Every structure is written in structure tokens, then in C-alpha cells.
Amino acid sequence: CCTTGCHRTFHLPCAPDGECVTQYFGAYRSFCWEHRPQQALQPRPSQDNTCSICLDTVEDKISYKTMGCPVCQDARFHRRCIQRLALHSGIAFRCPRCLNQEPFMMEMLTMGIRLSKRPPSWQSDQEVGPSDQRHGRCDAATCLCPGGREHAEADGPWQLWLCSSCAAEGTHRQCPSLGNTKFTWECNTC
Questions:
Q1: Domain extents in the chain
Q2: Which SUPFAM superfamilies match (predicted)?
């Protein structure tokens, strides 16, 4: 933790599980769960506690897992939803409700949301052209399939699983050791 006098340490990949915040700009500071920045938003009436992105229920108060827009004070979203939106929106990242960009983006950066400096994923897809083809290769660092990265079976260890968030990357069930009990997989980008 970068707060003076706090001696807590944590691995960067473990930070989200411990509700720690890492700011991906400037000095790239990290804060423990006790000293992390907090959003100063007013409580909402309890009749509309839905995520502006996935439309599932969110907590009725601002917390590590439930965030809000500092501009419109109306939008609420899950941290994981706004993080996915930030990565896919790239330089077009803005509040999904009021469409504010600058103050909203600065607040999200302060709260530990990582942004991408590339064009939005939907623009990149349009430049390439519409595609009705499914992603068809294993993108694991080490592909274990004897048939190669492009080999895929309908079921079993060489079934190709696509990222449950973006479907832009895939892996054989056996390559990341998903086993038979896991039903979804998410790529490192998401």
C-alpha cells in the first residue's frame, strides 16, 4: 500500500480479490482495502438498483463492487462490468448513462479501472469487415493439443472454449487445465 505508515503488501493479480485498488496512470500507485480511494456519491432510492451495463441488481450503496458516475450521479454499475466496458471502449470510454467522458474517465482511473488506449473494439471489427466466422484457434501460451492450435473437437479435452466476455480469444479445455467442472473461461485481456 502506498499510504504512508501502511505496510500491507499484496501481489498485483491478488489485489482485486482483496478489494485493493491499483491506479493504472501516473505513479501506478496501489492501495490496500483500508486506504483505497472511495467514491463520494449520494445514496440512491432503492427502487432502481440495477447496473447500467448488465441490468442485474447492484448494491444499494457505493462500495468496492458497486460504482457510480460522479457526473450524473444516476448510473450505477458493477466494477467488473465497467472494467470490461473500459477495455472494449478504449479511447471512446464514457459513462454508459449520461455519456460524460472527461470527469467520468478521471474518476474511474482514480478508482482503479484500467483503460485501453486503442480504438473501440467495435470499430476495429468494422474496419476488418463483418465476420460470421467463430474464432477458431487456441490462444493459450502453450498449446498442448497434438492436432495443433486450429484443431477443435465438439467435446472432450480438445474442445475449443471462447472467452465468455469477448469471444475474441479461445483455448482448448486441456491447455489451461479447465477440467470438466468449469463451464466458462475468460481471456487475460478481459
A1: 37-124, 130-189
A2: FYVE/PHD zinc finger
From residue 41, give the alpha-carbon distance in Å to each of 38, 67, 71, 112.
9, 9, 10, 17
Return the CATH number of the domain spanning residue range 130-189. Answer: 3.30.40.10
Q: What is the pLDDT of residues 35-79, one digit of tens each?
A: 999 998 876 655 568 898 988 999 888 999 999 999 988 889 999
- pTM of the full structure: 0.62
Cα–Cα distances in Å, from 70 out to 7, 12, 177? 31, 27, 41
Strands of the chain (E only): list them.
Answer: 21-22, 30-31, 66-68, 76-78, 160-162, 170-172
Question: What is the C-alpha separation between 93 and 154, in angstroms, rounded?
Answer: 37
> What CATH number does the domain located at 37-124 have?
3.30.40
pLDDT bin (cut points 50, 70, 90) of residue 181 is: low
Q: Which residues contact 117 (CB under 8 A, 6 or more apart)?
A: 90, 91
Topology agreement, domain 37-124 and domain 130-189 = yes
Instruction: Output DSSP code: residue 31.
Output: E
Q: How far apart are CA 57 and CA 13, in angstroms?
A: 26
Alpha helices, DSSP H, located in 117-159: 121-128
CA distances in angstroms from 91 to 14, 55, 77, 88, 94, listed in the order given: 27, 24, 20, 9, 9
Amino acid type, 118: R
Mean pLDDT, to the nearest integer, of 132-145?
Answer: 82
